[in-house]
Design goal:
The structure holds two protein chains of two kinds.
Chain A (H helix, E strand, L loop, with lengths): L3 E5 L5 H7 L6 E3 L10 H10 L4 E4 L13 H14 L4 E4 L2 E4 L2 E7 L5 H18 L3 E4 L14 H12 L2 E5 H11 L3 H7 L5 E7 L2 E4 L7 E4 L8 H14 L3 E5 L7 H19 L18
Helix pairs in contact in A: 4-5, 8-9
Chain B lengths: L2 H15 L10 H19 L1 H10 L3 H11 L11 H14 L8 H16 L18 E3 L3 E8 L13 E10 L5 E6 L1 H12 L3 H12 L5 H16 L3 E4 L3
Antiparallel strand pairs in B: 1-5, 2-3, 3-4
Helix pairs in contact in B: 2-3, 3-6, 5-6, 7-8
The chains are: A alpha/beta, B alpha+beta.
Amino acid sequence: MIAGVGLGLRWEFLDELLEEMPALAFLEVSPENYVGRGGFHRERLSDLRERYPIITHGLTMSIGGFDPFGAEYMQSLAAFAREVGTPWHSDHVCWSSLDGKLLHDLLPVAFTKANVVRIADRIKEAQDTLGMRMLVENISYYMHPGEREMSEPEFLSELCERADCGLMLDVNNAYVNSVNFGFNVDEWMAKAPLERVAQMHVAGHAWFDDRDREGHRLIVDTHGEDVTDPVLALLGRVLPRTGPVPVLLERDQNIPDLAGLMKEVGRIRAVYDAAIAQTEAPPVVQPSVTGVAR
Amino acid sequence: MSATRELDTARALHDACVGLHHEAMPRAWLYRELVQNNVRGVLRQLIPRATALMDEHAKGSVEALVDDFLRGPGMRSHYMREIPYEIFAWGKERLAGDARLPPYTVTLAAWELFWFRVRIAERTPRPDQLVDAAPHLPLVLESPALLETFACNIHAWEDDTPPPEPAETILLGYRDEKEEPKLFVLTPLAAAIVRELQKGSALAHAIPNACKTLGLDLSQSVLNDSARLLADLSNAGIILGAQQT
């Protein structure tokens, strides 16, 4: 069982990570960055597997999309997931390709009953193909496409229930959406299927001018800043209800050196430890650097 | 909402993302910028010197290339690192025809993409049993061993040196055991022999076939050059041995 705070593996700090091997509960990697790839970075991933548990997090499955899953993509993904020994594979509740063209971004799906059925079927298909459990992640969205028949947490609850999959709860995404759309994020969490949360993400975000509403601003999920205090506080309120699931720091832009990242990990770990102490379940011992649990 | 309407809405958002039309969808501008910036970023990352030339000599041409690509064929690969190859395959004629750009811009982009491929190409599994090289056996070459022909010696060009003059240059890119990318500059004969070997020709056939392709006689000079090539490839670890047929 993996518990504690982990880090999204990025090549910017790969050398430092190999050299220093800091205490991290796990590393998260995006298969799209490794599948079909050899060379230095691929070899270093093999080195890191010896020291850290690896969890995979995908970017382009297009779970909510209309195109059929690409057979080659899914087979390669399954092989990679088996190779690194991930306990599950996660991707986003979104679509990212249409008519065979990819956008390499996370486009929102409508929260409708029809989509619950359609997307749950796709998740089940993906789980069958991968031969493992999937977690689906709530995304940051900046518009809702079409009519909304239910709230996002209701949609996620029905989706996870119907697909019998787990939830990758992105705390920052929930917070970002709550600010951009003006809802209470604690009420959102109260309705979300927290019993299905198997992993969480936290990240930083940035403010932008909203060109559609002059004078208004909106938050964009950039993964380019430190995690904000409100997001950490929200994490602290949610963790006692999910129990000691692995929590990931995502950082994709303005990436500091490893010392800076570990400082950020330390902030999250302090919240994590304090929150888990409030849970009824006993805290899980952090895996050691060399003797990881798999 | 019906599945058809759902699909129509997705298509409208997709089209807004790639700039096909500017239908008044709320915050479509944000999605469009996220997509565009992502693609521009990976293009600049993989071909930094070629895009710098484009910025310097034809301001806005990188952005226009990406935007037109997205409006046209669009991205097909799940792997972001493949997108610059897709853009280049689609747009190289356009770049070559852009009088504002130095004539070696396309070659520079091709070189940068080639070099990236050398760095990251997967190794194919080695055969279980290798035997010593013999003329009647096909040689087994290490992978990657990538051959590409360039219009000038672009690999040797630095930003502070005179622009490269046109001169066909054939490069063989490979990685050593420490995953460091390396290069050989090959003669046309050497390249033809390597291509034959990569096709699985036995050594005894590879050299004559290469000569036939190039219209050369199988002279002592050719044999001497071939021997030097094979020695160089062996010393570099590219020739792993031979495969028993």
